[in-house]
Specification:
binds magnesium ion, alpha/beta, binds adenosine-5'-triphosphate, globular, 39% helix, Rossmann fold
Length: 264
């Protein structure tokens, strides 16, 4: 028996300029409990818009969005957002708050007692593998990778069951990015989370996700497991997108075959 559906979009459309052009159109997707689902697609294809409908940072024009079986407009937006952790590009850390204060934002809104918040901050720093010694630093005093870790810790602070992530590791060097992505996958499993993540990195999606939703021009062009999508034979542009990591791997293999050892 498969796990219950936690996030469901059904025929969701949104336009921004009075209906002249659609940011997304007829988007239908589901995320089951415990799944990590990645949304991929080119710039402007509607990934961020889709994600933001889930916690009502964007209200839809048409269609239905449900979280844990309830329509998202059944709750006031702030109540919904406190139940869902999110890490969005452009919604950064508060620059004048310390690391600890940033992580504590939602627990504080929820009125947790101070000792519980302090304990939670310590626990989260460990969880995202940051040293306790940075708790009193400001975001400007951290590296990009450390800031991303604080962002993940802040999103997890009030123990949400659902996480929304929009290019959370986007602006990082490839090694840090790879490490953080793999670590997040382990956290997702360990904490039993349900995650919807946006990335434009096809390889990251293939390596990380249980299922992938491919968007193109505001619509869902394909969806399936990484294995299913690697064998996709529909829209050639989608097939080409999904085939990119394989082409890179083949090129790398050729380079490695011809590589000449160098002595330093
Ligand atoms: N607030 C807005 N006002 C007007 N148009 C918008 C707004 N937000 C998004 N759009 C438009 O909707 C479309 C989809 O945007 P969206 O941000 O969802 O794309 P995306 O797939 O996340 O792109 P990227 O990979 O560049 O982040 C784009 O054409 C964009 O210009
Ligand atoms: Mg985006």
């Amino acid at each position: 028996m498969s796990a219950p559906v936690v996030v469901a979009l059904d025929g969701v459309s949104k336009s921004f300029d009075g209906g002249a052009t659609f940011a997304i159109r007829g988007v239908t997707l589901t995320v089951r409990r415990g799944e990590l689902v990645a949304i991929i697609g080119p710039s402007g294809s509607g990934k961020t818009t889709t994600l933001k409908t889930v916690n009502r940072l964007i209200d839809v024009d048409e269609g239905r969005v449900a979280v844990a079986g309830e329509p998202v407009d059944a709750l006031p937006p702030h109540a919904l957002r406190r139940r869902i952790g999110y890490v969005f590009q452009g919604i950064g850390l508060f620059p004048h708050y310390t690391v600890a204060e940033n992580i504590a934002v939602t627990p504080q809104l929820l009125g947790w007692p101070r000792p519980r918040i302090a304990a939670r901050v310590r626990e989260l720093l460990d969880l995202v593998q940051l040293p306790q010694s940075i708790a009193n630093r400001l975001p400007a005093e951290l590296s990009g990778g450390q800031r991303q870790r604080v962002g993940v810790a802040r999103a997890l602070a009030a123990e949400p069951a659902i996480m929304l992530m929009d290019e959370p590791f986007g602006a990082l060097d490839p090694i840090t990015r790879d490490t953080l992505a793999a670590e997040y996958r382990r956290l997702h499993e360990r904490l039993g989370l349900t995650t919807l993540i946006v990335t434009h990195d096809v390889l990251e999606a293939l390596m990380l996700a249980d299922r992938i939703v491919v968007m193109r021009a505001g619509e869902v062009a394909a969806q399936g497991s990484p294995q299913e999508l690697l064998a996709f034979e529909g829209d050639p542009r989608v097939a080409q997108l999904l085939d990119m990591p394989r082409r890179h791997a083949e090129r790398l293999e050729r380079l490695l075959r011809d590589a000449v050892p160098m002595r330093g």
